From TrEMBL:
One of its GO terms (molecular function) is zinc ion binding. It comes from Scleropages formosus. It holds the Pfam family RH_dom. SMART domains: DUF4206 (SM01175). PANTHER family: DIFFERENTIALLY EXPRESSED IN FDCP 8 HOMOLOG, PLECKSTRIN HOMOLOGY DOMAIN CONTAINING PROTEIN. Positively regulates lysosome peripheral distribution and ruffled border formation in osteoclasts. Involved in bone resorption. InterPro entries: C1-like_sf (IPR046349), DEF8 (IPR051366), DEF8_C1 (IPR047983), PKC_DAG/PE (IPR002219), RH_dom (IPR025258). This is Differentially expressed in FDCP 8 homolog. The keyword Transferase does not apply. The keyword ATP-binding does not apply. It comes from the Eukaryota. Residues 79-130 form the Phorbol-ester/DAG-type domain.
Length: 380
């Protein structure tokens, strides 16, 4: 009976006819509800019902503290393009204050460029520009492994927001970002993990390491960008990773197939080259890689998909299309055998005139091209 009397005294709030307009009155109601929960039998229906009402009270209090205003749908700030979110059910965390975003009662925004999420009330506190601009203008990775400079060089402050930090956790815990090597506070470093490009390039290591929020966003935006020229950064990698050699050969073959497709009506209608639309750089060069390429090479996923595409391309040129077949070559050294194509595994191609020969014939002839020989003699 005592429980019912206490409950009835707050019934207008519970049922939704919100009469407790005063914040202090709401706080008293919440405290009373919390006390009731402790007094009621454990796991009882009445206790569960009171917990649900406590949640409702807290939401009402939050709504009163942070009333929804008529916010614009798009806001531009420090190169961020913030779009107002309509989702009310998805639970998110504010990238600025690290508090939960209650979509049901709070206005919040997401940057369409870097996916930075924050409360509407936190937007004017943002000091970090959108990393999308860094991706567009810089487009390169830090290729030194965890380039630490030390907390003393950071003046014992967070590298991003300049909050005082220390390794002892007083006044705030210092967390190191494995990508930048710098230290951050817990608001700027949430212990997210990511594959580190420098560790992949130098050690062929794909174990995720802890990174700060800004590094996480940057690495996420950069992961599919072909900015890694392995042949220049670490050419020895090809001596130790067989899969890289295999992928390089497949890419070289695809580049040799490309001229057939761009002059073939059937190939254009079948949109064969669009099979590589997610890796457009594969039809432009054979030496640039994205971090996602390297991750997929390590897992074996890229080898499977690229081999399948290579087979489809070769089948079109050598078997399915008469026009492409007619562009094949006959070995000009032995004049025998089947029609040759520059991407065949048993052929060699002259770098000057692109003539195609049996590999054995070419090397037996001291890698001398009969087409180019007259020109060479006349020049001498």
């Amino acid at each position: 009976a005592d429980y019912n009397v206490k409950l009835l005294s707050y019934l207008p709030i519970y049922t939704g006819s919100f009469v407790a307009s005063d914040i202090e009155q709401l706080k008293q109601a919440i405290e009373e509800c919390k006390r009731l929960i402790l007094e009621l039998p454990e796991h009882s229906e009445r206790q569960k019902d009171t917990v649900a009402k406590l949640i409702h009270l807290r939401l009402k209090l939050q709504e009163l503290k942070d009333p929804e205003e008529d916010e614009p749908n798009l806001r531009v700030l420090l190169e961020h393009r913030f779009s107002k979110e309509k989702s009310k059910s998805v639970k998110q965390t504010c990238d600025k204050c690290s508090a939960i975003i209650w979509g049901l009662i709070q206005t919040w925004y997401t940057c369409t460029g870097c996916y930075y999420r924050c409360h509407s009330k936190c937007m004017n506190l943002i000091t970090k520009p959108c990393v999308r601009s860094k991706v567009s203008h810089q487009s390169e990775y830090e290729l030194n492994i965890c380039p630490e400079i030390g907390l003393d060089k950071q003046d014992y402050r967070c590298a991003e927001c300049r909050t005082p930090i220390s390794l002892r956790g007083v006044p705030s815990e210092a967390r190191q970002c494995d990508y930048t090597g710098q230290y951050y506070c817990s608001s700027c470093h949430w212990n997210d993990s990511a594959v580190i490009p420098a560790r992949v390039i130098h050690n062929w290591e794909f174990e995720p390491h802890k990174v700060c929020r800004s590094s996480m966003r940057y690495l996420t935006l950069m992961i599919s960008r072909p900015v890694l020229k392995l042949r220049e950064i670490n050419p020895l990698l090809f001596n130790f990773v067989e899969e890289l050699v295999e992928i390089r050969k497949l890419r070289q073959d695809i580049l040799l197939m490309k001229p057939y497709f761009i002059t073939c009506k059937e190939a254009m209608e079948a949109r064969l080259l669009l099979q590589l639309q997610d890796r457009q750089h594969f039809v432009e060069n054979d030496d640039m890689y994205s971090l996602q390429d390297l991750i997929d090479i390590s897992s074996g996923r890229l080898s499977c998909s690229l081999t399948e595409i290579h087979t489809t391309f070769a089948k079109h040129i050598k078997l399915d299309c008469e026009r492409c077949q007619a562009k094949g070559f006959v070995c000009e050294l032995c004049k025998e055998g089947d029609v040759l194509f520059p991407f065949d595994s048993h052929t060699s191609v002259c770098h000057d005139c692109s003539a195609v020969f049996h590999r054995d014939c070419y090397y037996d002839n001291s890698t001398t091209c009969p087409r180019c020989l007259p020109c060479t003699k006349s020049q001498s």
